[in-house]
């Protein structure tokens, strides 16, 4: 009987000792086959170019003695390797702990492939390495709003109080500026705390960040959902009633629920919002739509707590429609065109942050083409 076939897939840009150790560990299970993401796929997913082209990355990976064969994956999106996987028919799909996703595990179950998660074992006395560390990214999270965005602005919640729902996202991806992921607030957090959120009262820390970002005299006050969404782990309900700071805060850090959300939440990268684009140039804030937004956010909160994915999807879409009614510049024609291609395939949709670009956010029980999945920071 011949050796087992082992498959791994990734970007493998900025090849380092951590990659080599990962390949060596995978190769202990059999002959190692490596699929690398194409330049086009990586640009679509991360909205940035690779340091090394796909030809360079393929050359370097093939040069490693632990690798039997390597190629550029033929598909696109997070699961760009599906057709290659079916063609190879490996015995094992090997991933590292950062690369593990429920979608990959489900795919392997469907295809009868053993799924193994590496624990990043460095070679000899070498330090643990990752591309994230080499890029000098810190551990401070990003923020994504799930529903109710804009209610953290008094100009909206004065018409109808309501909640903004946020999740704190682990920095597994380099989210772009002007993409609705609170990168501006995160940069201020890095100025304050460098590597990670410090220990202490999270709400007080969030207020410190909010004040640091919005000193006296600030013309356009950044909503406090940004600072709170970054600092507070898990899923948060921030209830606003005509003020910049929420009247009440509810947080859920239940691992089971957060995992359930992660499995059904998909982000499709778009181009960042243009620097000169003004979402607030045309607004129609009114009581009726503010009430619709508030009701949709509350429906979303209840759906998430009940793990009702159908209700979650509808509430997310209803929240987004209410936002666009008041802030029509949230969605531009290019984004609208892309969104229309997905609507029939998903349960709900919105756009990240203030819109104009960034990420389309989808609710779906099934994998979404060209989408990434995120990890929610636990408590």
Automatic annotation (TrEMBL):
Is Transferase found in the keyword set? yes
User: Key word Nucleotidyltransferase present in the record?
Assistant: yes
- Where does the Cytidyltransferase-like domain start and stop, copy by copy? 8-122
**Keywords of this entry:** Nucleotidyltransferase, Transferase
Cite a single Pfam family from the UniProt record.
CTP_transf_like
Give this protein's Gene Ontology molecular function annotations. Answer: nucleotidyltransferase activity
Q: Which Gene3D superfamilies match?
A: 3.30.230.120, HUPs
Q: Where are the transmembrane segments?
A: none
What is the name of this protein? Cytidyltransferase-like protein
Which organism is this entry from? Tannerella forsythia (strain ATCC 43037 / JCM 10827 / CCUG 21028 A / KCTC 5666 / FDC 338)
């Amino acid at each position: 009987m011949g050796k087992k076939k082992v498959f791994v897939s990734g970007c493998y840009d900025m090849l380092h000792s951590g990659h080599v150790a990962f390949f060596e560990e995978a190769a202990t299970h059999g002959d190692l086959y490596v699929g690398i993401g194409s330049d086009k796929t990586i640009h679509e997913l991360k909205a940035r170019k690779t340091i090394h082209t796909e030809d360079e990355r393929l050359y370097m990976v093939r040069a490693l003695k632990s690798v039997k064969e390597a190629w550029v994956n033929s598909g696109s999106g997070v699961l760009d390797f599906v057709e290659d996987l079916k063609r190879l028919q490996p015995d094992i799909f090997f991933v590292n702990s950062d690369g593990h996703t429920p979608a990959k595990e489900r795919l392997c179950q469907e295809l009868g492939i053993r799924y193994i998660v590496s624990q990043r074992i460095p070679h000899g006395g070498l330090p643990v390495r990752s591309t994230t560390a080499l890029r000098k990214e810190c551990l401070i999270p990003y923020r994504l709003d799930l529903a109710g965005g804009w209610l953290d602005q008094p100009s909206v919640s004065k018409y109808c109080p309501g909640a903004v729902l946020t999740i704190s996202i682990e920095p597994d991806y380099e989210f772009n500026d002007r993409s609705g992921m609170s990168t501006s607030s995160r940069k201020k957090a890095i100025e304050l705390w460098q590597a990670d959120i410090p220990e202490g009262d999270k709400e007080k820390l969030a207020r410190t960040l909010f004040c640091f970002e919005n000193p006296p005299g600030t013309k356009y006050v950044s909503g406090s959902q940004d600072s709170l969404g970054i600092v507070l782990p898990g899923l948060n309900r921030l209830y606003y009633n005509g003020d910049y700071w929420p009247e009440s805060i509810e947080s859920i850090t239940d691992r089971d629920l957060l995992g359930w959300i992660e499995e059904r939440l998909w982000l499709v990268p778009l181009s960042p919002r243009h620097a000169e684009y003004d979402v607030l140039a045309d607004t129609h804030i009114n009581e009726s739509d503010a009430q619709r937004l508030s009701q949709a956010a509350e429906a979303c909160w209840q759906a998430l707590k009940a793990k009702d994915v159908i209700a979650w999807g509808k509430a997310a879409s209803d929240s987004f429609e209410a936002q666009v009614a008041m802030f029509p510049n949230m969605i531009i024609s290019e984004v609208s065109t892309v969104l229309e291609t997905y609507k029939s395939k998903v349960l709900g949709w919105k756009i990240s942050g203030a819109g104009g670009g960034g990420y389309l956010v989808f609710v779906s029980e099934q994998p979404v083409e060209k989408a990434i999945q995120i990890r929610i920071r636990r408590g």
